[in-house]
Amino acid sequence: MTIKNLVPWKWGEEEQVPAKRTQPEDTLLSLHNDIDRLFDSFFRGFDLAPFGESFSTFSPNIDVKENDHNYQVTAELPGMDENDINLTLDNNILTISGEKKQETEDKGQNYYRTERSYGSFQRCISLPPNIEADKIDANFNKGILTVTLPKTAKAQKHVKRIPVKTG
């Protein structure tokens, strides 16, 4: 049996390869994508990104680690101070929120430039119910927020180490 026998049409004979028809939805979607690309390239070419990076929201990077005794959440909050940060724990959801305010001023011999940017953020982290809420500790140092959430004694006892064997 050859490959030609497996193909549902015959090359070069009376039957032809079926043509793909374009659906109206495909045409409208294609037109929509072309218009989007046109506007994106227009604003990018003149550095006029009205909906792009200049109005993007601030979202801090967050790391969550666990060990036998606690959970540790680390958030990068550059350019902020401790008064700009709100930290809450409600129904085992840790919420880090705040407002970032940034203002720069540049004076030269023939110019004066000032820029201001403001933006609020909120990050929510779902945690297990085995946390001692009264012993949570938060530390802010050089733009890094570190929140330590101790586990309950019962949760610490249930940790079982399983040895890994080779071979």
What do you see in this structure?
The protein has 167 residues and is of the alpha+beta class. The chain folds into 2 domains: 22-56; 61-157, Immunoglobulin-like. 19% of the residues lie in helices and 36% in strands. The protein contains 3 helices and 7 strands, in the order ααβββββββα. It has helices at 3-6, 24-45, 153-157, and strands spanning 62-66, 70-76, 85-90, 93-107, 112-126, 137-141, 144-150. The strands form 2 sheets. The protein has a 4-stranded antiparallel β-sheet, with no helix packed on it. A 3-stranded antiparallel β-sheet has the order 3-4-5, with no helix packed on it. The two termini are 47 Å apart. The model is unreliable at 47-56 (pLDDT under 50).
Order of helices and strands: HHEEEEEEEH
**How would you sum up the global shape?**
flat
> If helices are DSSP runs of H or I spanning 4 or more residues, what is the number of helices?
3
Intertermini distance: 47 Å
Number of domains: 2
Rg calculated over all Cα atoms: 29 Å
Q: What is the CATH class designation of the largest domain?
A: Mainly Beta
Overall number of strands:
7
Largest sheet: 4 strands, antiparallel
Mean pLDDT equals: 78
Helix content: 10-25%
- Side by side, the strands of the main sheet go 1-2-7-6
Unreliable segments of 5+ consecutive residues: 47-56
**Which structural class should the secondary elements be placed in?**
alpha+beta
